[in-house]
Amino acid sequence: MFKYRSVSGPSRCKIAVGACRFISSLSPCETEEEARAFINRVKEELPGATHHAYAYRLGLGEKLLTRFSDDGEPALTAGPPMLGVLEKEELTNVVLVGTRYFGGVKLGIGGLVRAYRSCAQAGVKEAEILEKELQIKVQIQVPYDYLGGVLKEIEAREGKVLDLQYRQDVRIRGSFPLREKEILFRQVREASRGSAVIETDENTAE
To answer: Domain residues for 87?
Structure first.
């Protein structure tokens, strides 16, 4: 319930299908902005390619977001087969780019589907797959007098402080394991004598 499968870091591999060359590039990502940035980076790193099709998955359950692009290939021959591989492997927070260099021989509709699927499968096989723990991001607003106690509770619950903003009160941006949510919220409220204001973004898997 509190874990999911993703890739540990960027990876790349090449396969040949007939006279065409395919390159699979994978990377973990947490947002659509990160996914698009990786896609653009692949395009810059692999210039002269005929197509840069892609697929990515973000989040879990009802918050799951999927996107794909055939990048000029016949409709549904590139992005969907790659997305299908990510779905079959139950990977999320991951982006996959399938780059094709045309070799002078057309593969046909069925051939393209099989080629991009094979490209994705090779990329996933090359990548390091691991289980990650589902995290939740929070913003906690707390009076200065209780800051020390709240920070102590976040640390005790394996949380990370991402940012501190000192205003009339202190605003803490952080993340922590979703499994610790109930106890952390209870402890933060106790440490602040009920004065803490807690906001969450539960569409977070990292």
So the answer is: 3-132
How far CA 113 is from CA of 13, 56, 123, 165, 186, in Å, comes to 18, 17, 15, 50, 51
Strand 20-28 to 11-17 pairing: antiparallel
Structure tokens at 161: 């402080």
Q: What radius of gyration do the chain's Cα atoms show?
A: 21
User: Which ranges of the chain does DSSP label H, i.e. alpha helix?
Assistant: 32-45, 79-88, 108-126, 147-156, 181-191
CATH code of the domain covering residue 197: 3.30.70.240
Boundary residue ending a domain (103, 132, 161) = 132
Where does residue 203 rank: exposed (0-12), middle (13-18), buried (19+ CB within 10 A)?
middle
The stretch 127-135 carries a mean pLDDT of 93
Torsion of CA 38, 43, 49, 55, to 10 degrees: 30
79-88 vs 108-126: helix crossing angle, rounded to 10? 40
pTM of the predicted protein model: 0.80
pLDDT of residue 103: 85
What is the pLDDT, as a whole number, of residue 1?
65
Q: Kindly report the CA angle at 70 between 75 and 29, in degrees rounded to 5?
A: 145
